[in-house]
Amino acid sequence: MIQLDNVTKRYPGGQEALSGLSLSVNKGEMVFITGHSGAGKSTLLRLIALIDRPTGGQVIVDKQNTRRVKRRKIPAYRRQIGMVFQDHKLLSDRPVFDNVALPLIIAGVSRRDAARRVRAALDQVSLLHKENQNPLTLSAGEQQRVGIARAIVTRPKLLIADEPTGNLDPDLSLEVMRIFRRFNEVGVTLLIASHDIALIDRLGCRRIALEGGKLQDEIDPWQ
Amino acid sequence: MAVTRNADAVAPVRSSSAFSIWLTRHASMSLGALGRLCRQPVASLMIILVIGVTLALPAAINVVVKNAQSVSGSWDNALDFSVYLRLDLTVSEAEGLARLIGQRADIASVDLVTSDEALAEFKQQSGFGAALDQLSENPLPHALVVRPSPGNTGESLILLQEEIGNLPETDLVQVDTEWVQRFHAILDIVRQALAIGAALLGLAIVVIIGNTIRLDIENRREEIEVTKLIGASNAFVRRPFLWTGFWYGLLGGSFALLLVQYGLYLLRDPVTRLAGLYQGNITVATLGLTESFAIIGTAVFLGLFASWTTAARHMRRIEPR
Asked: How far apart are CA A213 and CA A179, in angstroms?
């Protein structure tokens, strides 16, 4: 599903966020990326989401070489990927329902279909009863779940998450991870950046550790 | 709460036609843009006011020019010229000449004003009645008021006047319509100036709306970034701002129309009074349906143009970080 070949990302100013990184994530896998801040976790996800482009090497996502995705085609490319952010990036000028519906509106889904799918997505994160509330009135854990509902409402094959539990206490973190686990069980590929190693170990998933933009360690509990 | 959906079904389900989805989407976006304007009533009203006044100015001047033209248009027919005959001509000789000239194809009609008639009229209008009675004989000549036929051009008129001036019976040909031509020339200048002024004011409107949209975009920067992050195209994020420009144009144009119509309403009585003084049947030309639509249409076009160029410029710049 995701394949990185010798990927280097150098930011203007000279510092190298990723240097010669190669890794692959198979279809249907749930993989964590760990490492200290500055290890290159976020940069890796940014390259996959085409927020940035690699300086060298190739990033292939779902058989598409991101290098060949033209600027004009980036929106369509991003619509295939669900994204969850540490600060959840919800819009506070509209209720929960509209936030979750936004990807469907962008994709041009009819109002009736959109409503049905928004409710299904909110149901999956147990927030159906809060659809009319403003995101600002929700707790941190609830806000993050709304962010997840928005990421999965278009039923993407791939979901990437950057520190999704960064602002949550251990109980809420576990709940969020369980939600991710359930998506994985129905075939969604997940790539999650996190530094919460204790939590990751409980889930028993493959873990890729980055250090200084390079692959430091790879732990696969199944091998 | 179990995940039952097949995660492979990525393609959006499209049960209604793409067109009807597009239509409802635009309808909701346009209402959304209108709603945003209504949430900042003072700021929006100020801009609509500025657009209205800016557009009303050239529109009003245009109406004034049009009225002046219609008034001077009635003067166009007044190309009559007077032919003063030699003093020694008798009434019957003058009548004969009038008949003769009247037969020409390039002359519509000839009126004879005999010296007696002229004197009587002069006495009545000048107020020198008593003084004129002292005169032993009538000092005024017979005169012909010649009205050329409408087919005449400016050049043929001059030729005609020369020809009649050269007749042995003629003493003097007097043309008193030169000022009409001068008036036309002035109107032409006013119209040119109006076109230049209107273009400058249009530019001002584009700048005003563009600047407002730019501030709007800056205020909603985060929203634009997030929307782009989850896959919105430039066209998608631009759309609400186009609608904002559309509404500014429509409301501003309507306000301009209202201003002009109200101004004309205020002018109607004084003009009617003036017309009464000239015994003319001057009516104030108002804005027709076409012109009303033209004003609103121009405003909408300027609004869309301003928002389009501004949004296009800024949308490309705002990318998720």
From this structure: 29
SS3 assignment, position B204: helix
Interchain CB contacts (distance < 8 Å): A and B: 97
**Record: contact B18-A150, CB cut-off 8 A:** no
H or E segment at A176?
Answer: helix A170-185
Give me the mean pLDDT over the B194-214 stretch.
92
**What is the residue-averaged pLDDT of chain B?**
82
Q: What is the pLDDT of residues A187-214, one digit of tens each?
A: 999 999 998 888 888 888 889 998 888 8
Which pLDDT value is given to residue B75?
A: 61
Interchain proximity B229–A110, CB inside 8 Å: no
Nearest CA in chain A to B225: A89
Judged by CB atoms closer than 8 Å, whether chains meet at B229 and A104 is answered as no
C-alpha span between B254 and B248 (Å, rounded): 10
Distance from CA of A155 to the nearest CA of B (A): 5
This prediction has a pTM of 0.73
Q: Which residues contact A97 (CB under 8 A, 6 or more apart)?
A: A118, A122, A131, A132
Residue spans of the domains in chain A: they are: 1-80+156-223, 90-155
Give the strands of the sheet with A56-61, arranged side by side. A16-25, A2-10, A56-61, A64-65
Specify whether domain A1-80+156-223 bears CATH 3.40.50.300. yes
Strand bridging mode A189-193 / A158-162 = parallel
Interface contact B10-A157, CB threshold 8 A: yes
Model confidence over B83-133: pLDDT tens digits?
A: 898 888 888 888 888 888 888 888 888 888 888 888 888 887 777 777 777
Query: Chain A contact for B223, CB < 8 A?
Result: yes
Give bridge partners of residue B174 from the DSSP assignment: B82
Q: Is A50 on the interface with B (CB under 8 A)?
A: no
Burial readout B302-314 (b: 16 or more C-beta within 10 A, e: otherwise): bbbbbbbebbeeb
Q: Which domains does chain B have, with CATH numbers?
A: 27-75+181-317 (no CATH), 79-176 (3.30.70.3040)
DSSP code of A112?
Answer: H
SS3 assignment, position A70: coil
Instruction: Tell me if B232 and A75 make a contact (CB, 8 A cut-off).
Output: yes
Cβ contact (<8 Å) for B229 and A49?
yes
Provide CB contacts within 8 A for B54, sequence distance 6+. Answer: B201, B204, B205, B208, B256
Is B210 a residue whose pLDDT tops 90?
yes
Pairing of strands A189-193, A30-34: parallel
- Residues of chain A contacting residue B227, judged by C-beta atoms under 8 Å apart: 102, 106
